[in-house]
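Re: the request from the purification team.
They wanted to know what the chain is likely to look like in 3D before they choose a buffer screen. I agreed to run a prediction and write the result into the notebook, where they can find it.
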Amino acid sequence: MQPEFLANVVNEERFQSLTNELRCLVCQNQTIAESNADLAVDLKNLVAKQISEGKTDKEILQYMEDRYGEFVLYNPPVTIENSILWLGPFIVLVIAVFFLFGSLKRQSNSKD
């Protein structure tokens, strides 16, 4: 169900690559290549249109990010702004282990 003007192989490969880099905003756990949601179909058509207009992959991805936010990127880059999301689970784990060892140490000291 791809637009007709993606006839040549180069554009088809670019189309597949780009649609696999963009998240379906409705499904959220799928790329727009995998999704059949109406919004995903609209985004696929938009990608195809921009390819046919001669836009580069970087320009297309930047347009999508500017319009829909960083969330539309299936694999967003690690930045200072989102580093807490990337590092948060590890920080929580370290704090939990610290409290666990502290609790175990206090418990063993109280038994002595």
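For the purification team: Residues 83-111 form the longest helix (29 residues).
Please add any questions underneath this entry.
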